[in-house]
Amino acid sequence: MSVFKRNGMGNYYIQFNHNGKTYCKSSKTTNKRTAERMERDWRDEIHRIEELGERPRITLKDALNGYVQSKANTGSSVYAKNNLPAIESKMDTSVFIDELRDWDLNKFKSSREADGMAPQTIKHNLQAIRSAIAWAKDHGYQIKPLTFPKVKLNKHRLRYLSHDEEARLLADLDPKRKRPYRPDYEFRPAAENRMYQDNYDLVVLLLDTGARYSEIANIKWSAIDLENGIINLWRPKVRNESIIYMTSRVKDILTRRYSDRVSDDHLFTNLDGQQRGYQSKGIRSAFQRAGITDFKIHDLRHTCASRLVQAGLSLYEVASILGHTDVSTTQIYAHLERKDVSAKARDVLENLHRLTQGELQ
Fold first, then answer.
1. CA atoms within 13 A on the CB side of 178
2. What superfamily does domain 163-340 belong to in CATH?
3. What stretches of the chain show up as alpha helix (H) in DSSP?
4. How is the chain split into domains, by residue range?
5. pTM summary value
6. Per-residue pLDDT reduced to its tens digit, 222-280
Protein backbone atom coordinates (compact mmCIF):
# COMPACT_ATOMS: atom_id res chain seq x y z
CA MET A 1 0.00 0.00 0.00
CA SER A 2 1.15 3.53 -0.71
CA VAL A 3 -0.60 4.98 2.35
CA PHE A 4 -0.26 3.19 5.68
CA LYS A 5 0.13 3.55 9.42
CA ARG A 6 3.16 2.20 11.18
CA ASN A 7 2.08 -0.41 13.70
CA GLY A 8 -1.47 0.61 12.87
CA MET A 9 -1.18 3.80 14.94
CA GLY A 10 -0.53 7.51 14.55
CA ASN A 11 -0.27 9.50 11.32
CA TYR A 12 -0.42 7.97 7.86
CA TYR A 13 2.82 7.51 5.95
CA ILE A 14 3.21 7.78 2.18
CA GLN A 15 5.54 5.43 0.37
CA PHE A 16 5.95 4.55 -3.31
CA ASN A 17 8.57 3.81 -5.98
CA HIS A 18 9.31 5.92 -9.04
CA ASN A 19 11.96 5.03 -11.59
CA GLY A 20 13.61 2.65 -9.15
CA LYS A 21 13.74 5.21 -6.31
CA THR A 22 11.73 4.88 -3.09
CA TYR A 23 9.97 7.96 -1.71
CA CYS A 24 8.67 7.96 1.86
CA LYS A 25 7.46 10.60 4.29
CA SER A 26 4.83 11.24 6.96
CA SER A 27 1.59 12.86 5.85
CA LYS A 28 1.30 14.42 9.32
CA THR A 29 -2.41 13.56 9.34
CA THR A 30 -4.59 10.73 10.66
CA ASN A 31 -7.10 11.28 7.85
CA LYS A 32 -6.64 8.61 5.17
CA ARG A 33 -8.33 10.58 2.36
CA THR A 34 -6.11 13.56 3.03
CA ALA A 35 -3.05 11.33 3.00
CA GLU A 36 -4.13 9.75 -0.30
CA ARG A 37 -4.59 13.20 -1.85
CA MET A 38 -1.12 14.18 -0.64
CA GLU A 39 0.25 11.02 -2.24
CA ARG A 40 -1.30 11.89 -5.62
CA ASP A 41 0.01 15.44 -5.41
CA TRP A 42 3.48 14.20 -4.50
CA ARG A 43 3.51 11.69 -7.36
CA ASP A 44 2.42 14.45 -9.79
CA GLU A 45 5.14 16.77 -8.51
CA ILE A 46 7.86 14.17 -8.95
CA HIS A 47 6.57 13.39 -12.44
CA ARG A 48 6.72 17.08 -13.41
CA ILE A 49 10.22 17.43 -12.01
CA GLU A 50 11.79 14.21 -13.36
CA GLU A 51 9.81 13.61 -16.55
CA LEU A 52 8.88 17.13 -17.66
CA GLY A 53 11.90 18.98 -16.25
CA GLU A 54 9.89 21.34 -14.07
CA ARG A 55 11.51 22.81 -11.00
CA PRO A 56 10.12 22.04 -7.52
CA ARG A 57 8.35 24.79 -5.60
CA ILE A 58 9.29 26.31 -2.27
CA THR A 59 7.49 28.67 0.08
CA LEU A 60 8.91 32.05 1.00
CA LYS A 61 9.21 30.88 4.62
CA ASP A 62 11.29 27.84 3.69
CA ALA A 63 13.45 29.90 1.33
CA LEU A 64 14.08 32.48 4.07
CA ASN A 65 15.04 29.72 6.49
CA GLY A 66 17.29 28.15 3.86
CA TYR A 67 18.99 31.49 3.29
CA VAL A 68 19.48 32.04 7.05
CA GLN A 69 20.95 28.56 7.49
CA SER A 70 23.34 29.18 4.61
CA LYS A 71 24.70 32.17 6.53
CA ALA A 72 25.35 30.23 9.74
CA ASN A 73 28.80 30.85 11.22
CA THR A 74 29.37 33.91 9.02
CA GLY A 75 29.36 37.63 9.78
CA SER A 76 25.98 37.91 8.05
CA SER A 77 24.25 35.39 10.32
CA VAL A 78 22.78 37.88 12.78
CA TYR A 79 21.81 40.25 9.98
CA ALA A 80 19.92 37.47 8.19
CA LYS A 81 18.07 36.33 11.32
CA ASN A 82 17.11 39.85 12.42
CA ASN A 83 15.12 40.44 9.24
CA LEU A 84 12.87 37.39 9.58
CA PRO A 85 10.42 38.67 12.27
CA ALA A 86 9.60 41.84 10.29
CA ILE A 87 9.05 39.91 7.06
CA GLU A 88 6.90 37.23 8.71
CA SER A 89 4.76 39.84 10.48
CA LYS A 90 3.97 41.80 7.30
CA MET A 91 3.90 39.13 4.57
CA ASP A 92 2.23 35.76 4.08
CA THR A 93 5.38 33.65 4.00
CA SER A 94 3.40 30.46 3.38
CA VAL A 95 2.98 31.39 -0.31
CA PHE A 96 5.22 29.81 -2.91
CA ILE A 97 7.97 32.08 -4.15
CA ASP A 98 6.78 31.77 -7.75
CA GLU A 99 3.40 33.16 -6.61
CA LEU A 100 4.92 36.39 -5.29
CA ARG A 101 4.07 39.51 -7.27
CA ASP A 102 5.58 42.97 -7.45
CA TRP A 103 2.65 44.44 -5.54
CA ASP A 104 3.35 42.09 -2.61
CA LEU A 105 6.74 43.74 -2.24
CA ASN A 106 5.32 47.24 -2.66
CA LYS A 107 2.64 46.49 -0.07
CA PHE A 108 5.33 45.26 2.34
CA LYS A 109 7.37 48.44 1.81
CA SER A 110 4.31 50.66 2.39
CA SER A 111 3.38 48.76 5.53
CA ARG A 112 6.87 49.16 7.00
CA GLU A 113 6.85 52.87 6.15
CA ALA A 114 3.49 53.22 7.91
CA ASP A 115 5.08 51.65 10.99
CA GLY A 116 7.69 54.42 10.95
CA MET A 117 10.61 52.18 10.04
CA ALA A 118 13.79 53.85 8.80
CA PRO A 119 14.50 53.56 5.05
CA GLN A 120 17.73 51.67 5.76
CA THR A 121 15.81 49.09 7.82
CA ILE A 122 13.24 48.61 5.04
CA LYS A 123 16.05 48.23 2.52
CA HIS A 124 17.61 45.49 4.67
CA ASN A 125 14.24 43.69 4.90
CA LEU A 126 13.81 43.72 1.13
CA GLN A 127 17.39 42.60 0.61
CA ALA A 128 16.72 39.57 2.85
CA ILE A 129 13.77 38.63 0.61
CA ARG A 130 15.91 39.13 -2.48
CA SER A 131 18.64 36.93 -0.98
CA ALA A 132 16.11 34.20 -0.11
CA ILE A 133 14.88 34.16 -3.71
CA ALA A 134 18.46 33.98 -4.99
CA TRP A 135 19.09 31.07 -2.60
CA ALA A 136 15.97 29.29 -3.92
CA LYS A 137 17.10 29.79 -7.53
CA ASP A 138 20.57 28.42 -6.76
CA HIS A 139 18.97 25.32 -5.20
CA GLY A 140 16.81 24.54 -8.20
CA TYR A 141 13.42 25.87 -7.08
CA GLN A 142 10.89 27.68 -9.22
CA ILE A 143 11.12 31.45 -9.05
CA LYS A 144 9.57 34.33 -10.95
CA PRO A 145 11.37 37.56 -11.93
CA LEU A 146 10.36 40.36 -9.57
CA THR A 147 10.91 44.12 -9.59
CA PHE A 148 11.80 45.24 -6.09
CA PRO A 149 10.61 48.70 -4.99
CA LYS A 150 13.29 51.34 -4.64
CA VAL A 151 13.95 52.73 -1.19
CA LYS A 152 15.25 56.27 -1.01
CA LEU A 153 17.76 56.58 1.80
CA ASN A 154 18.07 59.69 3.88
CA LYS A 155 21.38 61.46 3.44
CA HIS A 156 23.17 62.01 6.73
CA ARG A 157 26.17 64.15 7.43
CA LEU A 158 29.29 62.05 7.82
CA ARG A 159 29.99 62.15 11.56
CA TYR A 160 33.49 61.84 12.95
CA LEU A 161 35.28 63.08 16.05
CA SER A 162 37.23 66.30 16.15
CA HIS A 163 40.49 66.09 18.08
CA ASP A 164 38.89 68.07 20.91
CA GLU A 165 35.96 65.64 21.06
CA GLU A 166 38.35 62.70 21.14
CA ALA A 167 40.23 64.25 24.04
CA ARG A 168 36.98 64.78 25.98
CA LEU A 169 35.83 61.24 25.25
CA LEU A 170 39.06 59.59 26.37
CA ALA A 171 39.15 61.78 29.49
CA ASP A 172 35.68 60.56 30.38
CA LEU A 173 36.59 56.93 29.70
CA ASP A 174 39.79 57.16 31.75
CA PRO A 175 39.48 54.33 34.30
CA LYS A 176 41.22 56.39 37.00
CA ARG A 177 39.01 59.47 36.80
CA LYS A 178 36.85 60.29 39.80
CA ARG A 179 33.27 59.11 39.39
CA PRO A 180 30.24 60.44 41.25
CA TYR A 181 29.16 58.29 44.18
CA ARG A 182 31.98 55.79 43.59
CA PRO A 183 35.20 55.21 45.54
CA ASP A 184 38.53 56.30 44.09
CA TYR A 185 40.24 53.98 41.64
CA GLU A 186 42.38 52.24 44.27
CA PHE A 187 39.35 51.27 46.35
CA ARG A 188 36.99 50.09 43.63
CA PRO A 189 36.32 46.40 42.89
CA ALA A 190 38.78 44.99 40.34
CA ALA A 191 35.94 43.89 38.07
CA GLU A 192 34.60 47.46 37.91
CA ASN A 193 38.00 48.91 37.05
CA ARG A 194 38.49 46.23 34.41
CA MET A 195 35.15 47.21 32.82
CA TYR A 196 36.22 50.87 32.65
CA GLN A 197 39.63 49.87 31.25
CA ASP A 198 38.05 47.63 28.61
CA ASN A 199 35.85 50.48 27.37
CA TYR A 200 38.81 52.86 27.17
CA ASP A 201 41.09 50.38 25.41
CA LEU A 202 38.39 49.30 22.98
CA VAL A 203 37.66 52.88 21.89
CA VAL A 204 41.36 53.61 21.28
CA LEU A 205 41.74 50.44 19.22
CA LEU A 206 38.68 51.33 17.14
CA LEU A 207 39.99 54.86 16.55
CA ASP A 208 43.45 53.69 15.47
CA THR A 209 42.51 50.63 13.40
CA GLY A 210 39.29 51.74 11.71
CA ALA A 211 37.91 48.28 12.41
CA ARG A 212 34.28 47.39 12.99
CA TYR A 213 33.22 47.02 16.61
CA SER A 214 32.78 43.23 16.45
CA GLU A 215 36.15 42.76 14.75
CA ILE A 216 37.98 44.25 17.75
CA ALA A 217 35.58 43.34 20.59
CA ASN A 218 35.81 39.64 19.70
CA ILE A 219 39.42 39.49 18.51
CA LYS A 220 41.67 36.68 19.74
CA TRP A 221 45.21 36.89 21.05
CA SER A 222 46.27 34.58 18.22
CA ALA A 223 45.67 37.51 15.84
CA ILE A 224 48.05 39.79 17.77
CA ASP A 225 51.75 39.91 16.88
CA LEU A 226 53.25 42.18 19.54
CA GLU A 227 56.85 41.57 18.48
CA ASN A 228 56.26 42.93 14.97
CA GLY A 229 53.47 45.35 15.94
CA ILE A 230 50.91 43.70 13.66
CA ILE A 231 47.23 42.83 14.01
CA ASN A 232 45.99 40.12 11.64
CA LEU A 233 42.40 41.31 11.49
CA TRP A 234 39.80 38.82 10.27
CA ARG A 235 36.65 40.52 8.98
CA PRO A 236 33.66 38.12 9.25
CA LYS A 237 31.27 40.49 7.46
CA VAL A 238 33.23 40.47 4.20
CA ARG A 239 35.23 37.29 4.93
CA ASN A 240 38.68 38.70 4.30
CA GLU A 241 41.76 39.47 6.35
CA SER A 242 43.72 42.69 6.75
CA ILE A 243 47.13 43.33 8.22
CA ILE A 244 46.98 46.37 10.50
CA TYR A 245 50.15 47.95 11.84
CA MET A 246 49.83 49.18 15.42
CA THR A 247 50.16 52.80 16.41
CA SER A 248 52.32 53.36 19.48
CA ARG A 249 49.34 53.79 21.78
CA VAL A 250 47.70 50.65 20.44
CA LYS A 251 50.91 48.69 21.01
CA ASP A 252 51.18 50.07 24.56
CA ILE A 253 47.59 49.02 25.28
CA LEU A 254 48.04 45.53 23.84
CA THR A 255 51.34 45.02 25.68
CA ARG A 256 49.71 46.00 28.97
CA ARG A 257 46.65 43.85 28.33
CA TYR A 258 48.81 40.85 27.43
CA SER A 259 50.70 41.15 30.72
CA ASP A 260 47.43 41.41 32.68
CA ARG A 261 45.36 39.09 30.48
CA VAL A 262 42.47 37.20 32.06
CA SER A 263 42.09 34.89 29.05
CA ASP A 264 44.58 33.16 26.79
CA ASP A 265 41.97 33.15 24.05
CA HIS A 266 40.15 36.49 23.73
CA LEU A 267 41.54 39.99 24.16
CA PHE A 268 38.23 41.29 25.57
CA THR A 269 35.94 39.04 27.60
CA ASN A 270 32.53 39.13 29.28
CA LEU A 271 31.90 38.22 32.92
CA ASP A 272 31.99 34.52 32.02
CA GLY A 273 35.41 34.77 30.41
CA GLN A 274 34.02 34.34 26.89
CA GLN A 275 34.30 36.79 23.99
CA ARG A 276 32.91 40.23 24.86
CA GLY A 277 30.12 40.38 22.29
CA TYR A 278 28.13 43.57 21.87
CA GLN A 279 28.37 45.52 25.12
CA SER A 280 28.16 49.19 24.25
CA LYS A 281 26.17 50.86 27.03
CA GLY A 282 29.22 52.18 28.89
CA ILE A 283 30.76 53.65 25.73
CA ARG A 284 27.50 55.23 24.57
CA SER A 285 27.04 56.79 28.01
CA ALA A 286 30.53 58.27 27.72
CA PHE A 287 29.52 59.95 24.45
CA GLN A 288 26.70 61.71 26.28
CA ARG A 289 28.78 62.73 29.29
CA ALA A 290 31.49 64.12 26.98
CA GLY A 291 28.88 66.22 25.16
CA ILE A 292 29.33 64.34 21.88
CA THR A 293 25.95 64.40 20.17
CA ASP A 294 24.60 62.56 17.11
CA PHE A 295 27.36 59.98 17.39
CA LYS A 296 27.41 56.18 17.25
CA ILE A 297 30.09 53.62 17.96
CA HIS A 298 30.42 52.89 14.23
CA ASP A 299 31.37 56.57 13.80
CA LEU A 300 34.71 55.75 15.46
CA ARG A 301 35.46 53.82 12.25
CA HIS A 302 34.40 56.87 10.24
CA THR A 303 36.72 58.98 12.39
CA CYS A 304 39.75 56.85 11.52
CA ALA A 305 38.89 56.78 7.81
CA SER A 306 38.20 60.52 7.63
CA ARG A 307 41.53 61.36 9.24
CA LEU A 308 43.40 59.09 6.84
CA VAL A 309 41.76 60.75 3.82
CA GLN A 310 42.42 64.23 5.23
CA ALA A 311 46.07 63.25 5.77
CA GLY A 312 46.45 62.48 2.08
CA LEU A 313 45.71 58.75 1.65
CA SER A 314 43.74 57.92 -1.46
CA LEU A 315 40.29 56.35 -1.32
CA TYR A 316 41.78 53.12 -2.67
CA GLU A 317 44.31 53.03 0.15
CA VAL A 318 41.66 53.75 2.77
CA ALA A 319 39.39 51.07 1.25
CA SER A 320 42.20 48.57 1.73
CA ILE A 321 42.69 49.56 5.37
CA LEU A 322 38.96 49.40 6.13
CA GLY A 323 38.59 46.05 4.40
CA HIS A 324 36.04 47.32 1.86
CA THR A 325 35.55 44.81 -0.94
CA ASP A 326 34.31 47.57 -3.27
CA VAL A 327 35.89 51.04 -3.33
CA SER A 328 32.44 52.52 -4.03
CA THR A 329 31.71 51.92 -0.33
CA THR A 330 34.57 54.27 0.51
CA GLN A 331 33.07 57.05 -1.62
CA ILE A 332 31.34 58.51 1.47
CA TYR A 333 34.74 60.06 2.26
CA ALA A 334 35.25 61.41 -1.26
CA HIS A 335 34.31 64.98 -0.33
CA LEU A 336 37.17 65.04 2.18
CA GLU A 337 39.60 63.94 -0.50
CA ARG A 338 38.29 66.59 -2.90
CA LYS A 339 38.83 69.23 -0.24
CA ASP A 340 42.41 68.07 0.20
CA VAL A 341 43.00 67.97 -3.57
CA SER A 342 41.65 71.49 -3.88
CA ALA A 343 44.12 72.70 -1.26
CA LYS A 344 46.98 70.96 -3.08
CA ALA A 345 45.90 72.58 -6.36
CA ARG A 346 45.92 75.99 -4.68
CA ASP A 347 49.49 75.45 -3.41
CA VAL A 348 50.67 74.34 -6.87
CA LEU A 349 49.14 77.40 -8.51
CA GLU A 350 50.62 79.68 -5.83
CA ASN A 351 54.10 78.22 -6.49
CA LEU A 352 53.68 78.63 -10.24
CA HIS A 353 52.55 82.19 -9.73
CA ARG A 354 55.59 83.02 -7.60
CA LEU A 355 57.91 81.44 -10.19
CA THR A 356 56.28 83.45 -12.98
CA GLN A 357 56.57 86.69 -11.01
CA GLY A 358 60.23 85.94 -10.32
CA GLU A 359 61.00 85.42 -14.01
CA LEU A 360 59.23 88.66 -14.97
CA GLN A 361 61.27 90.59 -12.45
1. 2
2. Intergrase catalytic core (1.10.443.10)
3. 32-50, 60-70, 77-90, 102-114, 119-138, 163-173, 190-209, 213-217, 248-259, 281-289, 299-310, 315-322, 334-360
4. 3-50, 60-138, 163-340
5. 0.61
6. 999 999 999 999 887 777 788 999 999 999 999 999 999 988 899 999 888 888 988 88
